[in-house]
Protein 1
Amino acid sequence: MNKSVLVCTMAASLLLGPAAAAGAAPRAAYPVGEVVSDAPLNVRQKATVHSGTVKVLRPGQRVLLNCQARGGWVDGNPVWYRLQGAKGWVAARFVHNHQPVRSC
């Protein structure tokens, strides 16, 4: 390999750091949501209040939000959040998202 090409390659890797060697950036952490209901919040199998409950969250509990989608309306809000790591949905009406949540 030509010495000047090698020097340029080494200089570029020093300037760009590990990000250049790693390729694409890793996926950002999931957004955090906080339960803002006064009572326990049901986690549903599907994005509707007519679906079965799979888990219950406490008021003030923080959860990781995988994505958001439209579902059954809850107090004028049709948005539901799919929880990360748990197979279930919560009504966005009762969860404050601390970061933007991607669409499912």
Protein 2
Amino acid sequence: MQRIGSVRAKSMFGGHGIFLQGLMFGLIADCVLYFKVDQETEIEFKARGLEAFTYNKKGKEFKMSYYQAPEEALEDDEEMNLWANKAYGAALKAASKKRKK
């Protein structure tokens, strides 16, 4: 497994977006870390009972393709690297789909 590398944070959504090589793969909102998901990885997050990032706008709730990071990722560097790599992979897939349109 490859180390995730050097990331940067940018203020957004009332929190911070987490970027690697120009792609947002995570966000921090209300002191909670969320990772980008795709159809495959979303299943893993849901199976662990983790919640999606949601926000309200004009009384309507919106769900983004980011899920709360597993607790063990916050406590262990190897787990953090594993989940961050999954999130970055999901961000790469999403960017690839956008380019094909």
Protein 3
Amino acid sequence: MFLFWSIAALVVATVVFRVLCATRQAKLDLTYVQFDGDNSDARYKEDSLSLLTRGYKEYISKGCAFAIRDPTEVKQPMAVLPVKYLDEVKWLPEQKLSFWTHIDKLSALSQIGGPRLNEEVSIAARHGLNVALAHLIEPLETACRAAYAKELPPCQGWTSIHPYPLIVKIFASMSALIMVGPKLGAPDSDWQALSTAYLQVAMTGPREVRDHYPSWLYRLAPYTNKAIREMWSLRARGAALLAPLLEERRAASEEEAVYVGKGGKVREGKRKYEDAVQWLYDAHQTTGRALTPDQLVQEVLVIMVASLHSTSAVGLSVLFDMLDHPEAVDEIREEIVRVRKANLVWTRPALAELKVLDSFMRESARIHGLTQYTAVQRVAMVPWTFKDGLTIPAGTTLVFPGYHHGTDPSVHPDPEKFDFKRHLRKREEKEENAHKFHFASAGSEDIISWGAGRHACAGRFFAQEALKLMFIHLLTHYDFKYAEGTEEMPRFVARHMFLSPNPMLPILIRERKVEG
């Protein structure tokens, strides 16, 4: 009974607080774009793209911002800004324009007992993972090959499969190695089973809550929603698995001279461990915040969910584009053979030589926006005024139109054409472009879907190398084509501000004869 009244009091307090906040929030002084006629929730869910397209044509293309309904706060407007504001936004601190708050609003994780992104997660990705990638390629390739062997049935003739579950399991195998190391992350380990189960409920649970609960009742979800309860259960089991690992790293730290120093730079010395557990431990040493097994598993899981789901979706998008452009596949295969013959093993420099594959992947990202219509999302933590006088009230979400920017003819000539060498030509135009316009580039403003500035996607380099390893094996060992009878099935499915490849679309696959 006490628990009931405590929850009831919490709900009432939350409602009152939200009403007060809504009353006090300043007005966003921008043209509000909405549907004519049917302006229902269902229409926003299915057709937000048409509103963004209208706003882009009428306002963004003329250098003006506009407002649209915020999908995370349906009674509040969201500001959509032209890229002329990007330089003012991308390096502002969290205390002014917050990316973490946007992610939390979008996922509702903090309100349903899920893990949250934080400073330690960012440090671990930027100064742990990205530094370690240079010598993780070989074990990642081994994990990739093992996953193919385990998950893909023998297919000497054309065999129907759903590629999305296969892609998820391939990336899950590589991710487990990165997250918890080769021992705990081995194939068929308890961690592999737990992380796969967690990924599923972490995708379905928050979505069910957002679709069926008013936001002021989100905090009841851990008591009433099966998927959210399972998230909590898996989190507890994960903490138990990671506790011995954390103690091992604490003991080892007394003997190691390597740690993340002030400013995030790794000091000299040889690392004994290279995985997210170690990088997060080092990050907490830097910030001085305590690291418990429960905190550790939350941070490991949030990295895993963020990287695994998005990378798998991008991988499926690239695969669909390969199915639509077989002429490019032949050239990519020739490139793989040529580069492989020149290198004894796959390394980061060797993967960087796959320039046609890289350009193809970037073109796919350009057209599909890395599965999102918007980019560089922030929430104003304080009222923020730009140099030209545009003011964003505190609590308002602002975004940039990443999808439409990628298909703007003033940015990309002939944008409707899938030109798989578009970005390779850019790299070859000028000597200073040699290290620009590759798949994971976030510094050039022709594609902004990776984000920008302090919150450009920290895991994009891992995604780049993991995708290349997956496609190297797929293109080398298999042929593939669309299954008959799938012509009417949509290749991509729109939902609010996301454009996801259809995970239910089957394809046909068969083994290739590999010479040598």
